[in-house]
Amino acid sequence: MCGKSCRSLCNCAMRTEANIVQKVVPINIRNEQRGVVLIVALVILLVVTLLGVAVMRGATLDLKMANNSQERHQAFNAAEAALAQAEAFLINAGITNADLQNTGGTHRFNSTCTNGYCFLGSNTGGQAACDLAPGGVIPVEPWRDSTLDVWGNNNRHRNLVSSGNLVSSGNAVNVGGTPLQAKYIIEFRCFINGDDAGALISSDLGDALFRITARGISAAGNTEVMLQSTFRMTAPH
Description:
Layout lengths: L3 H89 L4 H5 L15 E2 L39 E2 L7 E3 L2 E4 L2 E15 L14 E11 L6 E11 L3
């Protein structure tokens, strides 16, 4: 039995419940929207952060590459300067035959590379008798011989020094304000026939042959470049 008053009461209850639902639902939607916006914002922030890190890493790598290239260029220039200085030394030093035979003179070439002058062969007779492999044994090249250690022993190499456009700066030499550090050795490599067809080794008229090995070092000391050149000159008598 449901009277008029009961139906009205039921309708009122239904309307009240409907009103409550209508009020609650929009609030839930706004909260969900806020949560989605927060998630999207965090994703965007993560992407931007990753892009920033990638850009910073790329810039750091570019800087390191540029620095390495600059240091290699410095070391290369130092080695080239040392080669030129060694060649000028051979021309102007007044090397004698006694130097090449290690029997006297000021610049004696010997197996211990004293003062950077190296000769691991035998040169006791005429030019034709000069031998780079005495007894058939080829010696270890001095610039790579760890036992001889020409680069670590200050008495077995020569240092790049100030000369001409090279200006001394402490223990280094600089060109245009860039400090250059280099060490070098000069090896006597026996004799070769000269440019003149009549200048033959058999007649002791050949040219003396030298090999120069230079080791250039960058200003920061992090990079080294090794260069070699061969140099021929009229043999002393």
